[in-house]
Write a structure and sequence with these properties.
about 160 residues; about 90% helix
């Protein structure tokens, strides 16, 4: 068997190997998406519950002052949840964009194999774009965590001191 016969096989195996690397990144992004969709659903559920409470005013046994205070709390919490909802949605879009970039990198590698052309530049650019999108998603997640921390600290300061 000549050495030239092995070259196409090694090229094909190299291309397949190169195409699977972005697929692993897509799998990791899928796990991130699962967590983000879960968070999104929880925020939406909380927002819907607060809006339902606001509409029905089921605050039994409270005086007028307490009802007004609760209405203010609901408005404040809804405002915070809307900010969180926009942030989580931006994270979902960023991770979905990363997934698309990684899939395009895989396609660029496969197309290069079929066309016998170098795909290094396109594939690397797609992977870099995907990584940048993931960095954006992580920055947004960190900002959300900081925002939640600030909200919790504010709410804790509003509580009466323990006896």
């Amino acid at each position: 068997m000549e050495d030239t016969d092995l070259h196409p096989v090694s090229t094909v195996l190299g291309a397949i190997s190169g195409m699977t690397a972005p697929a692993v990144l897509v799998s990791a992004c899928g796990l991130l998406m699962l967590g983000l969709y879960n968070k999104y659903s929880r925020v939406v559920g909380s927002l819907r519950a607060l809006y339902a409470e606001s509409r029905h005013r089921k605050v039994d046994g409270l005086g007028t002052v307490d009802r007004e205070h609760r209405a203010q709390q609901i408005a404040s919490e809804c405002s915070v949840l809307r900010v969180r909802l926009r942030n989580v949605l931006a994270q979902i879009v960023a991770v979905a964009s990363a997934m698309v970039m990684f899939l395009l990198a895989s396609l660029a590698i496969g197309a290069a194999l079929l066309l016998s052309a170098p795909a290094t530049t396109a594939a690397v650019l797609f992977i870099i774009a995907g990584i940048v999108a993931l960095i954006l998603a992580m920055v947004l997640a960190a900002l959300e965590a900081r925002f939640i921390w600030d909200v919790i600290c504010t709410e804790m300061n509003e509580l009466p001191a323990p006896n």
